[in-house]
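user: Here is a favour to ask of a fellow structure person. I have my own habits and do not want them to colour yours. Could you put it straight underneath, so I can go through it closely?

assistant:
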Amino acid sequence: MASLIENLIEELNKEYVVYEQLMEVSMEKTGAIVSNDLDRLRTTTDKEQLLVDTITGLDIERRKTMDGIAQVLGKPRGTVRITEIVDMLSGQPEFHDPLQEINTKLGRLAKSLKDVNAHNQNLIQTQLEMINYSINLLQNIDRAPETAEYSKDMFKGRKGGYGDTTSVTSGSFDSKN
């Protein structure tokens, strides 16, 4: 079991390094979004995808190690958590302390990464709303407003104008026809 724990610690450390790189790329992405630099955004997105692919591979290896630990403990695959293992290793500081430390660091980094990604998503949404607003504005700029045309004589008491009491016509609501 000791070798499984050592493998787990090593795999988590590798994941941490890649997550740190992903955090740097996510911060670059924020700058690209803010500066509206599409080429830089494309480049950072490509870097981000490569790092996510690497993390996926590392995650598969970590899950295999976790399944091995579960088997040694007599538990079903996928049911053992790192915090459980940390608790079980409380009497073995050579395994307990590094495992607890890397698990805590990964948790903090994951939260920070989640916050940066949420911020980036909000920035992108705001950019899309601005683009949509600009497109609507451009589409409507050549359309004349649909309002009635008024003349300067309209309110001067001319026949049919405002205040003209001599030209009352019968309408559909008049009682006399």
In short: Residues 170-174 have pLDDT under 50 and may be disordered. The CA atoms of residues 40 and 166 lie 73 Å apart. The domain at 2-140 is CATH 1.20.58 (Methane Monooxygenase Hydroxylase; Chain G, domain 1).
